[in-house]
Design goal:
Blueprint: E1 4-8, H1 16-24, E2 29-32, E3 41-45, E4 48-52, E5 64-67, E6 72-73, H2 75-87, E7 97-100, E8 104-105, H3 108-120, H4 132-140, H5 156-173, H6 181-195, E9 199-200, H7 202-211, E10 216-219, H8 245-248, E11 259-265, E12 268-270, H9 283-291, E13 304-306, E14 308-309, H10 310-320, E15 324-328, E16 338-347, E17 350-352, H11 359-364, E18 366-373, H12 390-403, E19 407-411, E20 419-421
Parallel strand pairs: 1-10, 1-11, 2-5, 2-10, 5-7, 6-8, 7-9, 11-15, 14-16, 15-19
Antiparallel strand pairs: 3-4, 12-13, 16-17, 16-18, 19-20
Bound molecules: inosinic acid (IMP).
Inosinic acid binds near residues 132 and 222.
């Protein structure tokens, strides 16, 4: 039995929440390893819908869940989310949730800086304004506060002085008042007793789990095209979203990552700014958006939509380390007489089989499509291959061929049970 790591293989919003929830039934521990409350994972169980942002999706099935050291954590948002899921009937206590002691905290000044930058920029990145980028900057700049600091409140003033020394220069530059150290200390003192019970060691718990032979599911957020190194820079998030980050962001050996499942939507969407070669700014794009309910879970922003881009996914399977994919939202393509798939690009008339690293070149790409005959029947709610129209099966097979990775799971509705398992990711190796 291997562990499984789940990552997004496009620009996010591929339906990771549902797949992770489905897989967490077969895991004993679920671990988040990067990102923060910029993520939005929607899980539908019967008539209940849970929207998770920081909490690992394992909490829905009452599984032991860890927020790893690679995550940046807004402690106020975390408590709010625990309160919200509590109201919906899920009790999240320190018995099931651990927050890594060495995870970096997202503070109000990070959110403020995120917003100031977006407002001032002539070329906006379209961030979620959750303070994620500024928090990671402070981590790398070695001036961040970490969860463990909430256990030693007397050390806060010195750490905050150091942090504000940096932030107040920036705030001044943006014409904003300086951050108030006393107010921040008071807010952290107030929240500390509520957060401290959750604080623990990610690496030690996972080492114990490995020794006990427990199965671990590593839950990625965002997606490979938003990866700080491998994505469409600078229109990316501030963390590594590839599978390799699961090791660094949780404190385990790279050998513990197990089988890597890339989540792939049957078409393409993107929220926020940046290049998107197969984007459709026409009726077909609108139709995909309407049928797929393509609005951001976190910000409510309308997602940009387009045809499936096999060039991108072929590349993200390589850079992300994907062994097999879970293909989601196939039902959104039901009823299209012709479905298009991008097989390569033209850049200034030259054929290209990959995404170039240069942002200006990315913006000039012309997608070249292959047309595939659609299907009139419904794939919604299908639970076996036999339930799928023949042309839908053909589409899936063609996607596999073009991206060079097999389909392990197929999701045919938001409901947990509407999932076809082609091969068990936990048994793959
Ligand atoms: P940030 O992560 O808030 O800094 O935003 C950077 C970019 O990543 C923006 O284009 C966001 O829309 C995008 N982004 C961040 N998190 C997600 C997500 O969970 N799904 C989809 N896009 C995301």
């Amino acid at each position: 039995m291997a562990n499984v790591t789940v990552i997004g293989a496009q620009w996010g919003d591929e339906g990771k929440g549902k797949i992770i929830d489905w897989l967490s039934n077969r895991a004993e521990i679920v671990v988040r390893f990067q990102g923060g409350n910029n993520a939005g994972h929607t899980i539908v169980v019967g008539d209940k819908t849970y929207k998770l942002s920081l909490l690992p999706s394992g909490v829905v099935q009452g599984k032991r869940s860890i927020i790893g050291n690679g995550v940046v954590v807004d402690p106020w948002s975390l408590l709010e989310e625990i309160g919200k899921v509590g109201a919906a009937g899920l009790t999240v206590t320190p018995d099931i949730l651990t927050l890594a002691e060495n995870a970096v905290l997202v503070l109000p000044l990070h959110r403020e800086l995120d917003a100031m930058r977006e407002e001032a920029a002539s070329q906006k990145l379209g961030t979620t304004k959750r303070g994620i980028g500024p928090a990671y900057e402070d981590k790398v700049g070695r001036r961040a506060l970490r969860a463990i600091d909430l256990k030693d409140l007397n050390s806060l003033p010195a750490k905050i002085e150091r942090l504000l020394g940096h932030h107040n220069v920036l705030r001044k530059g943006f014409g904003h008042p300086e951050a108030n150290a006393q107010a921040l200390i008071a807010a952290l003192r107030e929240i500390a007793p509520k957060i401290v019970p959750f604080i623990g060691s990610s690496w030690r718990q996972l080492d114990a789990a490995r020794r006990a032979g427990k199965r671990v599911l590593f839950e990625g957020a965002q997606a490979v095209l938003l990866d700080i190194d491998h994505g469409t820079y600078p229109f990316v998030t501030s963390s590594n979203t590839v599978a390799g980050q699961a090791a660094a962001g949780a404190g385990v050996s790279p050998r513990q990552i197990g089988t890597v499942l890339g989540i792939v939507k049957s078409y393409t969407t993107r929220v926020g700014e940046g290049p998107f070669p197969t984007e459709l700014k026409d009726e077909t794009g609108e139709k995909l958006g309407e049928r797929g309910h393509e609005f951001g879970t976190v910000t409510g922003r309308k997602r940009r939509c387009g045809w499936f881009d096999a060039v991108l996914v072929r590349q993200t399977c390589i850079t992300g380390g994907v062994d097999g994919i879970a293909l989601t939202k196939l039902d959104v393509l039901d009823g299209f007489s012709t479905i298009k798939v991008c097989t390569h690009y033209l850049l200034d008339g030259q054929k290209l089989d990959h995404l170039p690293a240069d942002a200006n070149e990315q913006a000039r790409l012309v997608p070249v499509y292959e047309s595939i005959e659609g299907w009139s029947g419904s794939t919604q709610g299908a639970r076996s291959w036999a339930d799928l129209p023949a042309n839908a099966v053909k589409y899936v097979r063609r996607v596999e061929e073009l991206i060079g990775a097999p389909v392990s799971l197929l999701s045919t509705s938001p409901d947990r049970d509407d999932t076809i398992m082609v091969s068990d990711p936990f048994m793959d190796r």
